[in-house]
Design brief:
This protein is 3% helix and 37% strand. It has one helix spanning 190-196; strands spanning 21-25, 30-32, 45-52, 60-65, 74-80, 83-90, 93-98, 101-103, 105-110, 121-128, 131-136, 139-146, 162-163, 175-184, 207-211, 216-217, 222-223, 239-240, 250-253, 265-266. With 277 residues, the chain is an all-beta fold. The chain has a domain at 34-210: Jelly Rolls, CATH 2.60.120.200. The protein has one helix and 20 strands. Residues 1-18, 219-232, 257-262 and 273-277 have low confidence and may be disordered.
Length: 277
């Protein structure tokens, strides 16, 4: 369905008739953005997305990740035991917070917020010089500071950026909806997080990747349908289009034709779309 008013704010412009979010099954579905240079998140950055889930298995489920645990590489933001969590593999070592426990980090704030209430929630994660913050619906929820040395994020060649799962093998799949994924190459202030959570932004000097789930490309045309073909799966050539202009387009995984999987798109969005604001 399409909402008629905002869940977390005042009424905005009418919803678009083609408004959709990405629906993932928590089993094998995700989007692979490859290994783009533009998303080498090293020191200052912000990751934003909207998520919705009613999962209660207390497991690990990831929104956005280019983390590879086995070799100590990259960044992960997601949920474990129904609460927010984040991992950062730095040159100096790994630090993280999950389940109210931090490793190699000082906890400045942890509100212990749960997000599996089947409602849309906006998540923003910022990182700067070893300090990580997670904002839930525009409110600071987690604030930790690394106790390690060199806090630049460490990367190992070949590790991919994913929406909906960890970058290491087949694990930690997101079970629910996700929308408006955006990566910026600077740290946003709380005022900017609050301001931008209800805005559909795609381009700008600091935006290195933006996936609104509205636009697909099959190589010849833009597609706005909520069903891909008779099996309900994406066409083999469909890509999730990056709106930033950096061409970090995503490849669908787990939606194989004939498997009985549903379409990856759900006509349900976290807020009414705004353009030109």
């Amino acid at each position: 369905m399409l909402p008629t008013s905002l869940q977390h704010g005042t009424r905005r412009a009418p919803p678009l008739s083609n408004g959709v979010s990405l629906l993932l099954d928590g089993i094998d579905e995700y989007v692979n953005m490859g290994v783009p240079v533009e998303t080498s998140l090293i020191d200052d950055f912000t990751i934003e997305c909207w998520v919705r889930t009613d999962n209660t298995d207390n497991g690990s489920h990831d929104f956005v990740a280019n983390r590879w645990h086995g070799g100590g590489s990259g960044v992960l933001v997601g949920m474990r035991t129904n609460r927010l969590r984040c991992f950062f593999f730095t040159v100096g070592g790994m630090f993280f917070i999950q389940n109210g426990t931090a490793s190699n980090a000082t906890i400045n704030l942890d509100l212990g917020d749960t997000i599996n209430d089947d409602a849309w929630h906006h998540i923003a994660t910022t990182y700067e010089a070893g300090r990580a913050k997670m904002f839930l619906d525009g409110v600071l929820s987690i604030d930790i500071t690394s106790t390690l040395g060199n806090t630049d994020i460490r990367y190992i060649a070949g590790k991919e950026l994913h929406i909906g799962k960890d970058s290491a093998g087949s694990q930690e799949f997101w079970d629910g909806e996700i929308d408006e994924v955006r990566i910026s190459s600077r740290v946003k202030s709380i005022n900017e997080v609050v301001r931008d959570q209800f805005r559909q932004l795609s381009s700008g000097a600091d935006i290195v990747g933006s996936w609104s789930m509205e636009t697909l490309f099959d190589g010849t045309r833009a597609v706005f349908n909520d069903r891909r073909d008779v099996s309900g799966s994406p066409h083999a050539t469909d890509l999730l289009k990056d709106g930033s202009g950096n061409d970090i387009d995503g490849v669908f995984n787990g939606f194989g034709a004939g498997t009985g999987d549903l379409s990856p798109f759900q006509r349900d969005v976290p807020f009414e779309r705004e353009y030109g604001r």
